[in-house]
Design the sequence.
């Protein structure tokens, strides 16, 4: 679903950036470096923060505002890049979609799966494209690893080891589930991408090493059953000094015809019993720059890129299911997480049109698998 937007006469997609904090500034630099994108304005609740960001980037005259839709209308922007904190993802994205603006948002799609389902329904109602930037998918070595997976025959076990010792300070060190909630979505999403499979169930255990500087559990192990019977095993710690892994983790994939390994930083290696070679992989671009390029191209071509909201929700559902399993000590079915989230989404939804779409779903997984309907986008709502 393209979202019905065409770049302006000069060929560039005009975007409003929402959020001017640390990650917002990284996106600001990325937008300015992309010749196919033009920065129309920057939004932040703290105007001084926005002013400092554009001055630091060397574009002090860029229009600023505190409301994304108002600034987009004032500047004639084509789309919104939402880099707000997770609790603001749902309201900012919803407002933009109903104003006729496609959205590229930071992960996670929303604060929880219930809000994510609301955003799926909002995208369907408006006919606008909403993409979640799972930036770790935009890595040439990862795409090469995925091609290697295709020659391994029947797949059996995929593993990730993630061991880092960052001292962030601030909110992460006070979270109840810092590793699962703030970081694990990256490898969980990557596992779906590599395997071409979806989560069925998970058993997860969390704990906090005695030397941890985190208030919540900073270490976890989880085993997911994926569709097709393959297992995905994740083990990680955010308080593991020495011999640290890549931020992408260290990966191993075993199949009936061999094994592939990826250290997260360099080219993956492959050993097969069949002698088959992996096909060359295309370079998808790097991290958020690749994500931005894919979003722009999708709007031009009317295609569906990685991270479109229907496709993305199951990555967040893996996180939520792992947290429930860790809290209860039980194996958790992902469909149960989806159904409970659907009930909450229906109860909490304030827009009748969005609620009607949610109510029409007989199966959440089926609605997500169906993807965005091909429908013309309605005209933007008039300004209040």
Sequence:
């Amino acid at each position: 679903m393209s979202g019905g937007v065409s770049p302006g006469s000069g060929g560039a997609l005009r975007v409003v950036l929402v959020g001017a904090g640390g990650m917002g500034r990284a996106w600001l630099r990325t937008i300015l470096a992309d010749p196919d994108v033009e920065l129309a304005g920057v939004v932040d609740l703290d105007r001084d923060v926005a002013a400092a960001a554009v001055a630091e980037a060397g574009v002090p005259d860029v229009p600023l505002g505190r409301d994304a839709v108002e600034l987009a209308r004032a500047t004639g922007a084509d789309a919104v890049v939402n880099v707000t904190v997770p609790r603001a993802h749902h309201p900012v994205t919803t407002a933009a979609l109903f104003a006729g603006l496609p959205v590229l948002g930071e992960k996670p799609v929303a604060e929880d799966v219930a809000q994510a389902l609301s955003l799926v329904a909002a995208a369907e109602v408006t006919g606008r494209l909403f993409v979640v930037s799972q930036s770790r998918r935009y890595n040439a070595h990862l795409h090469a690893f995925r091609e290697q997976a295709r020659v391994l025959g029947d797949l059996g076990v995929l593993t990730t080891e993630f061991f880092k010792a960052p001292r962030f300070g601030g909110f992460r060190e006070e979270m109840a589930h810092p590793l699962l909630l703030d970081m694990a979505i990256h490898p969980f999403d990557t596992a779906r991408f590599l395997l071409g499979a979806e989560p069925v169930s998970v058993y997860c255990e969390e704990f906090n090493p005695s030397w941890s500087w985190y208030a919540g559990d900073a270490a976890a192990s989880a085993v997911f059953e994926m569709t097709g019977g393959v297992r995905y095993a994740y083990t990680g710690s955010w308080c593991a000094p020495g011999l640290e892994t890549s931020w992408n983790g260290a990966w191993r994939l075993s199949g009936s015809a061999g094994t592939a390994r990826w250290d997260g930083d360099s080219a993956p290696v492959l050993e097969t019993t069949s002698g088959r070679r992996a096909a060359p992989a295309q370079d998808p671009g790097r991290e958020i720059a690749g994500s931005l390029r894919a979003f722009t191209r999708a709007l031009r071509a009317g295609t569906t890129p990685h991270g479109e909201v229907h496709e993305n929700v199951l990555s967040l559902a893996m996180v939520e299911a792992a947290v429930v399993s860790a809290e209860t000590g039980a194996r958790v079915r992902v469909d149960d997480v989806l159904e409970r989230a659907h009930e909450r989404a229906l109860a909490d939804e304030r827009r009748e049109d969005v609620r009607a779409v949610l109510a029409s779903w007989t199966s959440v997984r089926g609605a997500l698998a169906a993807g965005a309907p091909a429908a013309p986008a309605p005209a933007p709502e008039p300004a209040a």
